[in-house]
Amino acid sequence: MTALCWWRDDDAGRDHPRLHRLLDLAEAHGLPIALAVVPAWLEPLAVQRIRACPLATVLQHGIGHDDHSDDDQRKIELGGTVDRAWLAGELVAQRQRLEDAFGAQFLPVMVPPWNRMDPGLVPRLAELGFLGVSMDRGPVVAGPPRRVDAHVDAMDWQGTGRQKPLAAILGELDAGLAAGVRPLGLMTHHLVVDEAGFADLDQLFRLGHDAASFRWAAARELFVEREPAAA
């Protein structure tokens, strides 16, 4: 049976050469990519480039990627010290902003910055107009909102601050597939990927073309067409 994988790239919105490099890579391999876009970062040329890539699906990456954590908390935008009524209103306003910018290319799925949010806010996402949420390393949850996570972070945040070596990324993907994680999500951050990192991703996707045991799925397939949730 073919296993599903998916590719989510976070922190999009600004017109940056690495955004163009990322989308060029997706197009070169014909791979669907889910871009977690920060609404407050949107720049016209970035919108133009993303709209020109039919393989790209836009998800919502919070509001402005701002830290509202208390002194004893890890970084969090969708929670912490921020007023919850204001937060709910901003989530809706910024969802509309992305919908206006990208039309049908936008999928109302919340990707909270730093992959965390106030647990009490998660069940409210559906009433705020979101059909899904995506964080990291969790199982599929039917919802609402439907949850489909990214499991393999290509970045070494605690060590080098750079993208992990190709062998390490492949090892984590193989381990996830062997453990039965379905769909298995790969998370990248194009703004901090150097040319060597892009070369590794290119090689990773070339290897993927030769694998008959899995395929790369579009976000819409996972959140709308509904890959079965874990029991």
Can you tag this structure with a few keywords?
single chain; disordered C terminus; 9 strands; 6 helices; globular; 32% helix; 231 residues; alpha/beta; TIM Barrel; nine-stranded parallel β-sheet
Count helical runs. Answer: 6
* Spatial gap, N to C terminus: 18 Å
What is the domain total for the residues? Answer: 1
Q: So what's the overall shape?
A: globular
Outline the low-pLDDT stretches: 227-231
CATH superfamily: Glycoside hydrolase/deacetylase
Level-1 CATH class name? Alpha Beta
Give a written overview of the molecule.
- The chain has 231 residues and is of the alpha/beta class.
- It has one domain: TIM Barrel.
- The chain has six helices and nine strands.
- Strands 1, 2, 3, 4, 5, 6, 7, 8 and 9 form a nine-stranded parallel β-sheet that branches.
- α1 runs parallel beside α5.
- The longest helix is centred in the middle third of the chain and has 19 residues.
- The two termini are 18 Å apart.
What is the secondary structure topology, with strand pairs?
Elements: E1 3-12, H1 17-29, E2 33-37, H2 44-51, E3 56-60, H3 84-102, E4 106-110, E5 132-133, E6 146-147, E7 152-153, H4 166-178, E8 184-188, H5 195-209, E9 214-216, H6 219-223
Parallel strand pairs: 1-2, 1-8, 1-9, 2-3, 3-4, 4-5, 5-6, 7-8
Quick recap:
This protein is an alpha/beta fold and 231 residues long.
